């Protein structure tokens, strides 16, 4: 049976479960998350290290390290032209996936130096991707590559194309990565902390660039970051992750102006910003992600939660609907609670 | 704040630090990186001074030079300039002999960015914290073990952690161990060199709060080095902005943020993302790229990226201009309207 996808959607992830499997033991890393990305939309996965956000993106890209990690449940439906693929069931090493990777879905990473090949010239790396997926000739692919470099704001692209990655600054390298990722006009771009290693002035330029390019080339973006300032700058919708689960999702304004989940509120209250008052006692979230509840069935955030009550220690809450577009995985949303 | 300009703990005067680099054929050519150049700053007893700048601006070189880990090419670093027992103008760390260093080394301590590489994996936590006490000998501390337990408790760890190894701790906890060790010898000055940059958002604020509390309780002078303006905003009394090894601007926290007088400070502020989705920058900022510190531009080093640059800026290095009491900026156009 061919999978189907609503026509507005570029990607739909349903009940995705990823686990580290060793022998008979299964340690869940992503615990049944669901989200979708509409066409031309930028969706942010935000959370702290170990929450499963990068693993989710790697699973979409078919780059999960298997073994030990494995998709153990759920679907990843991706639109590629007229077709829809369930990436969770596609062999990541197979021909079908190879044809999608780089063409229908591509990815940029935190560290551009480790994602570019140091022994190939910048231009050649982009030309290779273009030729592989489009069948353009050498000359046409070279032209397309130059056009991409120009588009991402690289001055004198003819010169830069003939240089090697180590001859570029970090910001320039990340631009080359973006040009590479967008060269075949993918429907979906996965961006995993693409500005975290960059300086703020470079970050500001790269963020605006990603926003404008995905708008003009009609690309949907899944943007992964731990930085709430960046989320506010780039997201249309946001999913907040905690320990492998989505605990709150909604439109970016809802998340920042009317956060519901105690974890989201805690995060927002603990971010020092240039507009914070000096010495304002921002409130840290207590404890660490390693603080797990005694009862494995309890809400995983309960040990760190400021608003927990009896119910939280007994059962993990479902995703409650706050409004049609806003959801929170917290017992506080339940009507008639004590 | 009870600090006064008349009680300086460290007077940095026209400090320059240069490193030789090889270049050209077989690395036969010799040139110099001007990591810190003509840098002057007086640090007052009991204050928290934030030092901000992008990668390569020389902020970590400055920290290492204060620690005696680099030898300056020019200038002086006068420790306790009013303490005649150390010398006519305190002790100049730039010229201090190893005998001099023995007297003051324990007075200046540092916490580095990466708590994973700065702790020995084979040493138990108790021994890591007790080690500096043992080195100082029984005249300094009679019972290093007991004192180490006190220190662990002071930074929010417990007696039980004494016999554990660093790998059993999270990043935030390791940073607490580093802080315990750094304050073990009752330092006067504590340098935090990007000490919270590698930590998750929810942990970052816990460590900032801890440093701030320790500063108050122990009467420390805190030199807080970071690339993150938000973090510096929250903790600092005064802020110094560095660019390409030079001091760009220094002043009281509120003043630098409310009325920045150096164009580079304004650029940094404009590119720092604000966690509010209603305030996205309208268009791509054109900030240019950081020049090489081997070949810094003539005149004002910021002129190639500056909107206000004119012929004077291209030729003459701007002197520090006192724009308000205690607020200096090295710019020819400090009076320019924004």
UniProtKB/TrEMBL annotation, chain A:
Keywords: ATP-binding, Cell membrane, Membrane, Nucleotide-binding, Transport. GO terms for cellular component: plasma membrane. The keyword Membrane applies. SUPFAM superfamilies: P-loop containing nucleoside triphosphate hydrolases. It comes from the Bacteria. One of its GO terms (biological process) is peptide transport. PANTHER family: DIPEPTIDE TRANSPORT ATP-BINDING PROTEIN DPPD, OLIGOPEPTIDE TRANSPORT ATP-BINDING PROTEIN APPD. NCBIfam families: oligo_HPY. This is Oligopeptide transport system ATP-binding protein. The lineage of its organism: Bacteria, Pseudomonadati, Pseudomonadota, Alphaproteobacteria, Rhodospirillales.
Automatic annotation (TrEMBL), chain B:
GO terms for biological process: peptide transport; transmembrane transport. It comes from the Bacteria. Residues 10-269 form the ABC transporter domain. The keyword Translocase applies. The keyword Methyltransferase does not apply. It catalyses: glutathione(out) + ATP + H2O = glutathione(in) + ADP + phosphate + H(+). Keywords: ATP-binding, Cell inner membrane, Cell membrane, Hydrolase, Membrane, Nucleotide-binding, Repeat, Translocase, Transport. Belongs to the ABC transporter superfamily. Glutathione importer (TC 3.A.1.5.11) family. Part of the ABC transporter complex GsiABCD involved in glutathione import. Responsible for energy coupling to the transport system. This is Glutathione import ATP-binding protein GsiA. It comes from Tistlia consotensis USBA 355.
């Amino acid at each position: 049976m061919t999978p189907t996808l609503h026509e507005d959607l570029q990607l739909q992830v349903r009940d995705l479960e990823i686990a580290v499997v060793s022998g008979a033991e299964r340690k869940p890393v992503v615990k049944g998350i669901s989200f979708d990305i509409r066409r031309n939309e930028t969706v942010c996965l935000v959370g702290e290290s170990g929450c499963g956000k990068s693993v989710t993106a790697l699973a979409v890209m078919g780059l999960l390290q298997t073994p030990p990690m494995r998709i153990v449940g759920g679907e990843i439906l991706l639109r590629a032209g007229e077709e829809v693929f369930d990436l969770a069931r596609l062999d990541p090493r197979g021909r079908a996936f190879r044809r999608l990777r780089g063409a229908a879905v591509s990815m940029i990473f935190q560290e551009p130096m480790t994602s570019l090949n140091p022994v190939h010239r910048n231009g050649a790396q982009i030309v290779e991707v273009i030729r592989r997926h489009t069948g353009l000739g050498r000359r046409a692919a070279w032209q397309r590559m130059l056009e991409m470099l120009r588009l991402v704001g690289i001055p004198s692209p003819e010169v830069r194309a003939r240089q090697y990655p180590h001859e570029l600054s970090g910001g320039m390298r990340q631009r080359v990565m973006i040009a590479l990722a967008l060269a075949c006009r993918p429907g979906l771009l996965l961006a995993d902390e693409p500005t975290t290693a960059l300086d703020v002035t470079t970050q500001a330029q790269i963020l605006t660039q990603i926003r404008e390019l995905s708008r003009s080339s009609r690309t949907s973006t899944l943007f992964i970051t731990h930085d709430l300032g960046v989320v506010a700058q780039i997201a249309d919708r946001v999913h907040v992750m905690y320990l492998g689960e989505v605990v709150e999702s909604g439109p970016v304004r809802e998340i920042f102006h009317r956060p519901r989940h105690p974890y989201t509120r805690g995060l927002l209250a603990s971010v020092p910003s240039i507009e914070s008052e000096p010495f304002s006692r921002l409130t840290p979230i207590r404890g660490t992600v390693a603080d797990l509840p005694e009862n494995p069935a309890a809400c995983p955030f309960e040990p760190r939660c400021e608003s927990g009550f009896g119910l939280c220690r007994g059962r993990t809450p479902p995703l409650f609907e706050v409004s049609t577009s806003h959801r929170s995985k917290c017992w506080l949303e339940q009507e008639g609670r004590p | 704040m009870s600090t006064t300009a008349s009680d300086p703990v460290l007077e940095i005067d026209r400090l320059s630090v240069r490193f030789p680099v090889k270049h050209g054929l077989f690395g036969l050519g010799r040139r110099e990186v001007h990591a810190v150049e003509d840098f002057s700053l007086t640090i007052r007893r009991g204050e928290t001074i934030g030092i901000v700048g992008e990668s390569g601006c020389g902020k970590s070189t400055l920290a290492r030079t204060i620690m005696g880990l680099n030898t300056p090419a020019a200038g002086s670093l006068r420790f306790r300039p009013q303490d005649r027992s150390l010398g006519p103008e305190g002790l100049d760390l730039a010229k201090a002999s190893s005998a001099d260093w023995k007297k003051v080394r324990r007075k200046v301590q540092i916490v580095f960015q990466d708590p994973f590489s700065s702790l020995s994996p084979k040493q138990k936590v108790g021994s890591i914290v007790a080690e500096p006490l043992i080195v100082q000998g029984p005249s300094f501390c009679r019972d290093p073990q007991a004192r180490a337990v006190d220190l662990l408790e002071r930074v929010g760890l417990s007696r039980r952690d004494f016999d554990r190894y660093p790998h059993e701790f999270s990043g935030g906890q390791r940073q607490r161990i580093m802080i315990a060790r750094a304050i073990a010898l009752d330092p006067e000055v504590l340098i935090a060199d990007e000490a919270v940059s590698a930590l998750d958002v929810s942990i970052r604020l816990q460590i900032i709060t801890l440093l701030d509390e320790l500063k108050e309780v122990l009467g420390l002078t805190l030199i807080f080095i970071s690339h993150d303006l938000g973090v510096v905003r929250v903790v600092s009394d005064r802020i110094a902005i560095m660019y390409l090894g030079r001091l760009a601007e220094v002043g009281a926290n509120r003043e630098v943020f409310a009325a920045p007088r150096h164009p580079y400070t304004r650029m940094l502020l404009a590119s720092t993302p604000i966690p509010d989705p209603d305030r996205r920058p309208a268009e791509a900022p054109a900030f240019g790229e950081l020049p090489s510190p081997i070949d810094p531009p003539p005149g004002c080093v910021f002129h190639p990226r500056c909107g206000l640059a004119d012929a004077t800026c291209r030729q003459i290095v701007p002197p520090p201009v006192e724009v308000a009491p205690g607020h200096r900026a090295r710019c020819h156009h400090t009076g320019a309207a924004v």
